[in-house]
Amino acid sequence: MKTVDTINELRQQIANWRQQGLKIAFVPTMGNLHDGHISLIKQAHKHADKVVSSIFVNPMQFGVNEDIDNYPRTMAADIKKLTAANTNLLFTPTPDIIYPKGLDNQTCVDVPNVSNGYCGESRPGHFRGVATIVCKLFNLVQPDVACFGLKDYQQLQVIETMVEDLSMAIEIIPVATMREPSGLAMSSRNNYLTAAEKTIAANLNKTMLWVAEQLTSNTNFNELSAKAAQMINAHGMKTDYLHICHAKTLNPAQSKDKHLVILAAAHCGKARLIDNITVNL
Ligand code: PAF
To answer: What is the pLDDT of residues 235-244, one digit of tens each?
Structure first.
């Protein structure tokens, strides 16, 4: 795997592949890679001749109270994993390269509606940061397809909406969430959990599966959400939100809706965990 950290080197390699008529897939990451990321790389290989990944801990998507300095950085281990997964090119820019004028002077991408509420409410400015970096990386890599995990469901809707609204010629491939045997969704944030907290954290997914089952016979969404939040708290977590939503618009679900998603976030120890389950009634 070739690793580059400048825009010129990245563009040269991409231009070279384009001249050969090769199809390019892209998997952006913030590093600290786990099997979930590797499943994105594997999917990417199914859709293109060359797979490009990036590792960039994006300061714009961290809130003022979120500790970007303590975000786990594991570059050497990440490079080994990406190499083993046959990634062709890794882009590892520094913040100066991505935001040369500083964050305050950076043109931003705001995706309305789907960025609001849920994680958008708990983490103000987060999705503006995500949309801006993904747009910028798309412009640099110019991929044919890009893979994103369904684990970050709201993020995926934000990116799909951005691609549609800005007429970007990129196919977005959603990739299924990888889970621990306990059902806990794989996430870099699980590194913050102790072994005991991991056992507790598995109850987030278990409770959401309970909600999904209830939905087949009970569509009192508010009552179900409130009950589920209580159950998560009773397991020793602190529910940030649990909502039953329309799977595409993310608006609160209505009784006529057939395609739903249960979105949840909860604090467990030092980690803020998110998860989702789609339900087709
Ligand atoms: O999902 C992530 O890891 C990040 O939000 C992304 C898409 C790489 C943008 O920084």
So the answer is: 999 999 999 9
β 2-4/89-91 pair status: parallel
User: Which part of the chain has CATH 3.40.50.620?
Assistant: 2-175
CB of 162 closer than 8 Å to CB of 229? no
pTM, full prediction: 0.97
Whether 237 contacts 268, CB under 8 Å: yes
29 lines ligand 1 (CB under 6 A): yes
- Kindly list the catalytic residues: 37
Joined together, the tokens standing for residue 172 give 């977005």
Burial of 95 from C-beta contacts in 10 A (0-12 / 13-18 / 19+): middle
Question: What's the CATH code, domain 2-175?
Answer: 3.40.50.620
Rounded distance from Cα 262 to ligand 1 centre (Å):
21
Over the stretch 220-278, which tens digit does the pLDDT of each residue have?
999 999 999 999 999 999 999 999 999 999 999 999 999 999 999 999 999 999 999 99
> Alpha-carbon distance 55 to 5, whole Å?
10
Q: Whose CA is nearest to atom 2 of ligand 1?
A: 29
Nearest CA to ligand 1 atom 3: 29
Give first-to-last CA distance, the chain, whole Å. Answer: 44
- Is residue 25 within 8 A of residue 45, CB to CB? The reply is yes
Share of the chain above pLDDT 70, in %: 100
Q: Which CATH superfamily does the domain covering 188-275 fall into?
A: Pantoate-beta-alanine ligase, C-terminal domain (3.30.1300.10)
In which residue ranges of the chain is pLDDT below 50?
Answer: none
Which residues belong to CATH 3.30.1300.10 in the chain? Answer: 188-275
